[in-house]
Amino acid sequence: MATEEQTQEPQEPTRQPLTPAKEKRLLQCFEHAGKQVTLKSYDYATNLLAECVMGDPSNVEYVRSYLANLKNKYGNNRRGKLAKFLKRGSRTAVKKAVAADQWYDVIKHGLDVLTVNPWDIPALTAMATASEKMGDGEVEMVYLKAALESDPKDPGVNIQCAEALKARQQYDQAIACLHRVELVRPDDEEIQRAIASLAVEKTIMLGKSPDDVAVSGATASPGQPVEQLTAERRLELRIEREPKEMTHYYELSQLYINDENYGKAVEILAAAYEASEGNEDIRDRWDDVQLRYLRQQVVNAHDEGDKETERDLKKQLHEKELTVYQARCERYPNNLAFKYDLGLRYQFNGQYNEAIKQYQKAQNDPRRKGVCMLALGQCFQQIKQYRLAVAHYKSATEEIADRDAKNKKKSLYLLSKLALAMKDFETAEKNATRLAAMDFTYKDVSELLDKITQKREEEEAKGQADQAKQEDDEDDEDD
Questions:
Q1: What is the C-alpha separation between 110 and 59, in angstroms, rounded?
Q2: Interior CA angle at 356 toward 353 and 357, to 5°?
Q3: What is the DSSP string of 38-51?
Q4: Which residues of 339-364 are buried (b: 16+ CB within 10 A; e: fewer)?
Q5: pLDDT tens per residue, range 253-262
Q6: What was the pLDDT predicted at 450?
Q7: What is the pLDDT of residue 460?
Q8: Separation CA 129–CA 164 (nearest Å)
Q9: How many whole angstroms separate alpha carbon 174 and alpha carbon 157?
Q10: Which residue, 358, 352, 293, is CA-closest to 320?
């Protein structure tokens, strides 16, 4: 027989309207919390402000003050206590409440998660969703902006922000969010379509035809109708008319990128960066296109057989990559993907100690732990720290998923080779055998297995010979 709990549909608690008495009590609580913040009694202030937020989740000032107090508590370090394993119960409760559409409980448990890290993206985005569902649109944006502050490049946060801004018809800001996603996912056609769709919606909102929005009042060459203008020319005219509107530059540069005309895209984004007076998002996009342009030039020089030019361009590319990722790590200290990318550049340039520092930070990202272990093994091997290299190769073989066959096989191969060189035949044979089971044609794995067997037998024979000699020497001494 089903229990009442099993048969009853989950219901969201109905928010009761604030009575004058309750509103007055919350205001007094809020004022008292402000005094505690002034005294830097952050924990007490947190409890008081949490009571205010739970009493009136729609109050923007309560929410802003709650977040500001916690940020002050942690010195605005953008990571809180670095306590990813704290508040596990509350984190789980947030997920369950979201799944059950229990929006009030999402806020309740989310506030608890934020006490150890007010920049916690999953909690903030869940609370933004809860606020939107409860009709508190202004509070929704407060939580989303806090999540963006934590990681301005996070695709999920930017997509959620874009949806919220679109609902408010703030199309330029929504497009800017999606362009940040595009930087992380340059080949994501869905994002590109979403940007184009927002541009059309913006045009319709302005009361103009999508075809004419950029060129109203403008003409091409004498006698040429507006509708015959190319997409490129339309965007050029938009830029001439609205030089401070960054979406025009983005769309024109994307046209060139789609045609692999990276040189022109670099020029457009350079102009956008200047017109924006140093916007960092545009700078990131400009840097990415410059890198793509340099890579294209390297390939062209190689195809033409111009080795000297190819060598010079590769040097420029490596220097530019290093500069770009150093700057990004400084601007976005919590973005572990950028630290991994910087580690790759240091490793490629032979700066192994610097690479090790970046990989050791990046390994805290569960998605990259395996490849970080592999890279650390390679770097330690290069600086002749062989035991550390073996330890990291072993970790890599366990952390890298089988579906990442390329890196899995590479880690097994490098571990086997190094273990053989260190005469650790058991480790060498075990991992070479694992590799052979995955792909017997991988490099020289069959020869490697034979070599391991040969070296093991030689060492055993040598050991037996040494033992026999030692026994003979002892017999001679006895005589």
A1: 16
A2: 95
A3: HTT-HHHHHHHHHH
A4: bbbbbbbbbeeebbebbbbbbebbbe
A5: 888 888 889 9
A6: 94
A7: 82
A8: 10
A9: 12
A10: 293
d(CA 41, CA 109): 22
State residue 316's pLDDT score: 92
**What are the structural domain ranges in the chain?**
19-134, 368-479
**Cα(245)–Cα(252) distance, integer angstroms:** 12
What string of DSSP letters covers 165-229?
Answer: HHHTT-HHHHHHHHHHHHHH-TT-HHHHHHHHHHHHHHHHHTTS-TTTTTTTT--SSTT--GGGS
CA nearest to 275, candidates 315, 245, 300 = 245
> CA 94, 27, 142: angle at the middle one, nearest 5?
40
Least Cα distance to 413 among 436, 383, 386, 385 occurs for 436
Residue segments in the chain with a per-residue pLDDT below the cut of 70: 1-17, 82-85, 205-229, 468, 471-479
Q: Which of 427, 422, 359, 362 is nearest to 397 (CA)?
A: 427
The pTM of the full predicted model, rounded to 2 decimals, is 0.53
d(CA 36, CA 433): 64
Write the burial class of residue 419 (CB in 10 Å: 0-12 exposed, 13-18 middle, 19+ buried): buried
- Per-position b or e across 151-184, b if 16+ CB within 10 A of its CB: bbbbbebbbbbbebbbeeebbeebbbbbbbbbeb
Beta-carbon contacts of 388 under 8 Å, excluding residues fewer than 6 positions away, are 376, 377, 380
Nearest to residue 123, comparing CAs of 178, 163, 63, 181? 63
Percent of the chain with pLDDT over 90: 53
CATH assignment of 368-479, among 2.70.70.10, 1.25.40.10, 3.40.50.720, 3.40.630.30:
1.25.40.10
Altogether, the residues listed in the chain come to a count of: 479
Region for 124 from its dihedrals, namely left if φ exceeds 0, alpha if ψ lies in -120 to 50, beta otherwise: alpha
What's the pLDDT tens digit per position in 99-144?
A: 998 999 999 999 999 999 999 999 999 999 999 988 888 899 999 9
